[in-house]
Amino acid sequence: MSAKHDLFGTHSDWLFHTLDNSKASLPETKTFLPDGTRISRKAVGVLDIVPPAGRGNPNSEAIIVSAGVHGNETAPVEVLNELVSELIDGEWELACPVLLILGNPPAMVAGERFTEVNLNRLFNGAHGRSEYDGLAEAARAQLLEEACRQFAMASPQALYHYDLHTAIRPSHRERFALYPFVAGRQVPVRQCDFLLEAEVETLLLQHKAGTTFSSFSASLLKAESFTVELGKVRPFGQNDPKRFSGIRDALRRRLRGQPAPSPQPPFDQLTVFEVVHEILNTGKNFRFHIPDDVANFTEYQPGTVIWEDDETSYRVGHSPEAIVFPNPEVPVGQRVGLMIRPKTGSKLGSDEKGVR
Ligand SMILES: O=C(O)CCC(=O)N[C@@H](CCC(=O)O)C(=O)O
Ligand SMILES: [Zn+2]
């Protein structure tokens, strides 16, 4: 029997197996590749992969990569599935422990952002709130947190987490990453270089911890974590693979333990923004003054009223601010968008010290 058959039975690959078993609770299954690499399918859509003892891990790292936390963000799911197929087919050898996650299989089958509640608001323990009792997404958040905890405990190396997404709106900047807030932390220059290698040339610094997957791994597992937005939401099969070659090639290079290339034009400078305001649906007759179809990074001039309710309002401050993720269709208390502005001295080259 082949490793592929042990893991995915009669399904042609990891993605088909995950979609076909989206609601199943399957027991853990382990197998080995001919080179000794151990692959454990911890749960549906969760693979823990460890290279054989004795193989060098030249970058001394352990990596978590997640995709499909929102079920309709399919391109990053296809990227991860492709990397898994290449590894299982023996096209390259793994150098470091890796945990690969397809976040929300039932939502992937439905082609929806989520089925009952937004999975990416349930981390950092939020899944335990009584309002989420009995919801499938709350159970999934708990399972994913536990899988990440176990992976982190088993891997003494430096831990990295890339949570891959695509955006609902068009964007003036096609690819961008968000760096979760952890007090006193600076973005390491090597991570800036990795983002550039993945053709991600814009970075947003969050201003407070949240309940996203990347905020959980950054705050509680001390990982260097990023949410990475790689383009626009499209159904399975409608993504242009060329637009995702940057992240695919950069991740493959990391998993193989190869040295980092130096940043090359046009991806040699990261533009950095800071979040200045998180817009929440206050519920008190909340009114959002941004049109439905506005693109991410659309700029607003000082004094523009962005939202108001019966008690308060938010106006752009002394310098222009841009909007990211505008979406008023969220439950009360949840994020409607982020207001950002360029970080002073925001062009970061590979020879500088980091930001913040
Ligand atoms: O395009 C949108 O409105 C949402 C895209 C998306 O899912 N973004 C993530 C960002 C998570 C973070 O802030 O780190 C999300 O909203 O969950
Ligand atoms: Zn998303």
Automatic annotation (TrEMBL):
Residues 62-252 form the Succinylglutamate desuccinylase/Aspartoacylase catalytic domain. Its EC number is 3.5.1.96. CDD domains: M14_ASTE. Transmembrane segments: none annotated. Its cofactor is Zn(2+). It catalyses: N-succinyl-L-glutamate + H2O = L-glutamate + succinate. The keyword Metal-binding applies. Binds 1 zinc ion per subunit. Pathway: Amino-acid degradation; L-arginine degradation via AST pathway; L-glutamate and succinate from L-arginine: step 5/5. Residues 269-343 form the AstE/AspA barrel-sandwich hybrid domain. Zn(2+) binds at H70, E73, H165. Keywords: Arginine metabolism, Hydrolase, Metal-binding, Zinc. GO terms for molecular function: succinylglutamate desuccinylase activity. Belongs to the AspA/AstE family. Succinylglutamate desuccinylase subfamily. Transforms N(2)-succinylglutamate into succinate and glutamate. This is Succinylglutamate desuccinylase. It comes from Marinobacter metalliresistant. The lineage of its organism: Bacteria, Pseudomonadati, Pseudomonadota, Gammaproteobacteria, Pseudomonadales.
